[in-house]
Specification:
Number of strands: 0
Helix content: 55-70%
Largest sheet: none
Strand content: under 5%
Shape: globular
Radius of gyration: 17 Å
Distance between the termini: 47 Å
Order of helices and strands: HHHHH
């Protein structure tokens, strides 16, 4: 398991515990979504396509979440890990570290 995967797993376990979720049900929902995502090339293309607005992607994810009875916390977790366009950026995160200008050599 990669370091990033491990961090996501720990973060989700913390959310599940603090929200008193049925962990077996939450795990099954994650597995169901994973199977749905990996079984649909079209869904992968929609969620990974940077030209499709996040609002549209969320509508698709909400439709899937509703069909499989996904906990809101599981839905939010799936959103953060399935959409590369949710990664922090200077426009979406005002605390994003600013790039330093390279030192100039006289």
């Amino acid at each position: 398991m990669s370091v990033l995967s491990l961090r996501y797993a720990h973060a989700f376990a913390s959310v599940a515990t603090s929200s008193h979720l049925d962990t077996a049900a939450a795990q099954q929902q994650l597995e169901d979504f994973s199977k749905t995502l990996h079984g649909s090339r079209e869904l992968q293309e929609v969620l990974m396509n940077p030209s499709i607005a996040n609002e549209q992607k969320l509508k698709v994810l909400d439709a899937i979440a509703g069909r499989i009875g996904m906990f809101p916390q599981v839905r939010n977790f799936n959103w953060t890990r399935s959409s590369p366009s949710t990664a922090p950026s200077p426009t979406s995160n005002p605390t994003w570290p600013r790039q330093r200008s390279p030192a100039r050599i006289p």
